[in-house]
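Now for today's protein:

——
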Amino acid sequence: MKNWKYIIVIAVLGLFSNHFYGQIAQTYSFDADDLLEHVKELSSDSYEGRRTGTPGAEKAKTYIIECLKNLEVAPLNGEFEQAFNFDSGRIKYNGVNVLGFIKGTENSQKYIVLSAHYDHEGIKNGKIYNGADDDASGVSALFAFAEYFKENPPVHSVILAFFDAEELGLQGSRYYVDNPIVSLDSIVLNINMDMVSRNVNKELYATGVKTHPNLQTVYENIKPSENITIIAGHDGSDKKQNWTYSSDHGSFARKKIPYVYFGVEDHKDYHKPTDDFENIQPEFYKNAVQSIIMFFSEIDKLKF
């Protein structure tokens, strides 16, 4: 792993039309090599597809906690793990959410939950479903956020939520919102990332921007890099598949908490054993993560 920093400089033209024009630039930095290396690690065969309740999922949980410690992220309420159990069919599962915490500099009693799920499909018919895009990409993006916060502490407090058992019906995020460690009333927003590392058209969807006026305002004014397009949709207001409850943001939506879900449309390797690290698109992935961080940084400036 190289030790150089991937520095992204975005010239924001007309970000907010009353005073941003031409001269202003924002810098969003994270280690691009680490971003890719985390995906490569978590989607390797040694994790056996990270199915909830298996040794592979346990290994992923341990890896995530070690990474958070290395990034100097504190546990939420004193411990990283939030254990839960549930039945799916005739099978009983034990799951574990991993929860990190960064205290806000000003609005510390208000929380933004940044989330991704670390579980996947496991092994089926002798084939490992490694889930590189789904959702090792979102997990690694949370690490990029943690690194960004070291130099750019957030205004609101942030919970980094690595949810388990998303593939089994959003079980981890559902348990979290039903058993919140901080009051649900203090959670102003969920930003969920699930499948953000590949798209042949260089398109990243943002579902949920209509759930709060602040989200709509930032979406309409933000200018991502020329190498990626952010599209609002898949929210029931267009003719596309409705993604409102398609991933862990759905658990927040059911509690009437504003959310934005960032993800790509399904590709040929979706939920197949070919969703491997070799098939992600590194440049698109880096641009997607920097765009999501950019979106967060503008939202974080506003009051909810």
